Structures are given as structure tokens and as C-alpha cells.
Amino acid sequence: MWAIFGGHEGTPHLAIRNNFLRRSLTLLALKTTARFFRHDGVCVPISKNIIVKTDPFVHLSEATTMKFVAANTSIPVPRVYCSFVHRNRAYIVMERISGMSFPAASKALSDADLANIFAQLRRMIQELRALPPPPGAGVGSCIGGSLRDSRIPRSRPRFGPFGSIQDFHIWLRDELRLESHPERENDGDWEAIKKMVAKQDGSWPAPVFTHGDLNPSNIMIRDGQVVGIVDWEFAGWYPYYWEYTSAWYGNLTRRWWQNSIARFLDPNPEELEMEITRQKWWGET
């Protein structure tokens, strides 16, 4: 069952500072010191400054991604102390960022503070965009491996990689090809789908490195500064619009955030329209 969830086959090389002592101390701390800290979700504090991320869907590639971003940008990401798989379940031991999530911090921020934070975020996105993709890169993790995005049906536990952005798009629409449906009535829905397919199957520039889940809860603030971007499990090389549309679609109940995204991400209105059509027919049910 765990193998179905985790997809850890062939990933030992992704482990970071993995040895018997670190594994043993981590597992012991989860049974002892973790009891003294409140936690919610997959990140369990084991000390004031250290958390362990683990559940059936956590994957070593997330730790590899944080290490990659830390080594190649100035973006503040949690420091990874070690990562390993134990009994077919991944564990990522990392820094516990001291700060508040953006939604919690925003209550005490002035308009000037908000403008400064969005300017910081824009610079961070520009750093990600400046990372050169590997030669011939399609859609995949930072090392060209598989990806995760719980918002995409059929993606569990993981999906990809894809040799090209076009291949990724075909997979997203469940292999739909217009020529296979010559009898389809040309109504408004089909017109929208044809427009989406034409855009998806067209030419695309090289993929860009993408966080993939820039919702405000993954942005940590302290003293008016962005001190951490967390939760890199969806990150990878994607088409340029993916950061914008995933941030927009990831916050359907947060209209304020949707209206704020353009303050740090260049809007992609045509691609958003394409994604709205895809989400209508191939999104989560």
C-alpha cells in the first residue's frame, strides 16, 4: 500500500545526509519530543527549530528541490538537515521557519508593508525564472524526475516526467485529440475546447522553474520581510504560465489573493482562459 502512495522506487540517490544515526534520532524524536509541540498536517515539530515532514505522499524530491533552490538562488527556503525513506515512507528533516504565514501576518501590515512584500516576491520569482533549464528539458522535477500535484486528477501518487510541454498538455486533457471526434457538435463548449487544444498544442518556450503552489499560507513573514517560501512538493520545470494559474486556481475561495497575484506575477490571461476550460472538463470533481 505504501508503495502505491509514495512512489519511492529508484530514489535512494535523492536522500540527503542519510545515515543510521540521523534516521534513528529522527524516528525517536517523532515518538518523544514531538509530543511537546502542537502540529497540524504533515509537518511535525521535534524541537523549537526543527520539523519533520512525513506522510504517505511526501517524496524525497521535495528535499532535493529545496537544496537546489537554496544552492542556486537567494530565495529563503528551509534548510534541509537530512532526508531518507524508512519502511517505504519519506522523511524530510528541515529548519522550522520562525515567522507567520502571510494571511496571519497581513492583519498587522500597512499598505506600504504589503507593497514591499509583493516587491520581494516578484524578485524571488524573477530569480526562479532566471534558472536555466537542463538541455532538452520538458516538464519534470528539478532533476528531471516525476512530479506531484494533488489538484490534478489521475496524478496520484505522482506523474511525469514529460519530454515536452505539448506532451504534458495532452496528458492533462486525458489524451483528447480533436481529430478523434469529427462528429462532435460544434457548440460553445466544443469551441472553448478547440481553442484550448490549439493553444496547448502550439509552440512553447523552454520551461521555467516553478514553485507550483504559491498560496499565501506558503509564504512566511517576519518583521515585514519574506523569511521563507515553504512547501515545495509541487515544484518543477513547467510552462511559464503554470505559476500564475496554479496560484490563481489554488485559491478559489481567496478572492483577495487572486486580485493580488498580479502584484508579483505577470498575468497570463490567455493561458488562464485555457486553464479555466481545462479545469471545467478535466479538473477536480
TrEMBL record:
Keyword Transferase: yes
Protein name as catalogued: Kinase-like protein
Domain of life: Eukaryota
Record domain Aminoglycoside phosphotransferase: where: 62-262
Taxonomic lineage: Eukaryota, Fungi, Dikarya, Ascomycota, Pezizomycotina
Keywords: Kinase, Transferase
GO MF term set: kinase activity
Zinc recorded as keyword: no
